[in-house]
Amino acid sequence: MTLLIISPDYASHLFPLATLGSAWLAAGERVVVASGPATADIVEAFGFEREHLQLGRGSNPGVIRAEQQPKGEDDALRGFFAATREGMVATLRFQAQARNADLLWNPVDTARDVQRLVARVQPDEVIVDHLAFSARLALKSAGIRHADVVLGHPTALSVGDEVYGYPARWPACFDPHTADLAALHRLCGQVRDTFTEQWNGALVLLDPGAAASEDAFTETGDVLLLNYPVELHDPDRGRLLPPHAFLGSAVRAEVVDDDVERWLAGSDVPVVYVSFGSFLSVRSDVLARVVEALRGLDVRVAIATGSTSPVELGPVPATWLVREFLPQVRLLDGAALAVSHGGNNSVTEAMTAGVPLLLLPFSTDQFAGAAAVEDAGFGLVLDPNVAGAGELRAAASRLLALDREARDRLDRLSGSLAGGAGSRRAFAALTGAAARP
């Protein structure tokens, strides 16, 4: 049996998708990953075959920098980073305006590339990133059975009266003006309609007999998989989803880093892990405030600086671990608290490790995901553009002393996600095999 995984050339997308494929590899099956060159080393590390496929202009091997992106994508990234400094609505507005170019890049040519690749690989099963719209167009128009995986918060798939790009929920610490929200809602509706026109235009070229979509952001594959814990999702919203399976999480295995192991073993002082992911690590001003806040606590801190230079963080205690990139899964496993932007990998991996979260969301589905974590009592959320060091320190202190009831519930959630449950659930959903305990 051959599994084909189709992923954008972004490490943050490929890590969970490749982790799902590990269940096929463990069963002795062939796994082929189609992605771009920036993530080739990741594919090799998982032990999979690789096929070249370019699904967009940009790429991200793990830490993204605007100056390393192709012309056009570099300015788009700078614009996005600037928008995050203005706040929630400005960022969502910027992302809405860029959506067609981001998510439906060269749709017809890319779709035909995908169809040729499928003909060459001859997979028995296909898994594709839900946000790889051009690839999903290829599979839909050719009648190729496939599973699409929502890697972000489940609101990345619109249901009911939701409008893609307009947050279904956001934490109480954000208080946007009503008029700004109304304008954002109108914009997202306009983008939805334009995007759907482009989807349908490409679809009719690929399959003249295909039925047009009413809203391309509600389209799904034959099998819908959500890389998210069902325990954090509103059950009323869940009833609006098409047939689906919640995977919980897709936590990757990491190569042992001896220096990190020695650092973790060097003290019994609680560890706080800090990372803003591959994109938002550019916000050195917020990282520096987090450093200032944590300097006032009796903790050791591991910071993945990403695209921020360590000199921008201010004074850092010698007992802290500061690197551009750190083994996140391992450090979460040894952490008492994590400080994050609220990306889906960070949230699901922290929940799997049973680690409470101090969340500072900047964009897209991070707002809905942060609200869900806070509502569950597993974290606190602050506005990254507003929260000062004192407020950050107080929130971290509260989470380091998480109350027993919340601690017990988080431990139960962790137990349900641990041990590769997500990849086994994906295998069962696609093959019909019973999920192994």
Describe the structure in your own words.
The protein has two domains: 2-250 and 420-431, Glycogen Phosphorylase B (Rossmann fold, 3-Layer(aba) Sandwich); 258-402, Rossmann fold (3-Layer(aba) Sandwich), CATH 3.40.50.2000. Helix content is 45%, strand content 12%. The mean pLDDT is 93. The strands form two sheets. A seven-stranded parallel β-sheet has the order 3-2-1-4-5-6-7, with helices on both faces. It is an alpha/beta fold and 437 residues long. This is Glycosyltransferase. GO terms for molecular function: UDP-glycosyltransferase activity.
Oligomerization state: single chain
Strand order of the largest sheet: 3-2-1-4-5-6-7
Number of domains: 2
What separation lies between the terminal Cα atoms?
22 Å
Largest beta-sheet details: 7 strands, parallel
Give average pLDDT, whole number: 93
Amount of helix: 40-55%
Question: If you consult CATH, what is the topology of the largest domain?
Answer: Rossmann fold
CATH architecture of the largest domain: 3-Layer(aba) Sandwich
> How large is the share of residues in beta strands?
5-15%
Please count the helical segments: 18
Number of strands: 13
Unreliable spans are none
Return Rg in Å. 21 Å
Key words describing this protein structure:
single chain; 437 residues; alpha/beta; Rossmann fold; 2 domains; seven-stranded parallel sheet; six-stranded parallel sheet; 18 helices; globular
Sequence-ordered SSE layout with sheet pairings:
Layout: E1 2-6, H1 11-26, E2 30-35, H2 40-46, E3 49-52, H3 73-86, H4 88-97, H5 99-103, H6 107-121, E4 125-129, H7 133-141, E5 147-150, H8 178-206, E6 223-226, H9 235-238, E7 244-246, H10 258-265, E8 271-275, H11 277-280, H12 284-295, E9 300-304, E10 321-323, H13 328-333, E11 337-340, H14 344-353, E12 357-359, H15 366-375, E13 379-381, H16 389-400, H17 404-417, H18 421-431
Parallel strand pairs: 1-2, 1-4, 2-3, 4-5, 5-6, 6-7, 8-9, 8-11, 9-10, 11-12, 12-13
Helix pairs in contact: 1-18, 3-4, 4-8, 6-7, 6-8, 7-8, 12-16
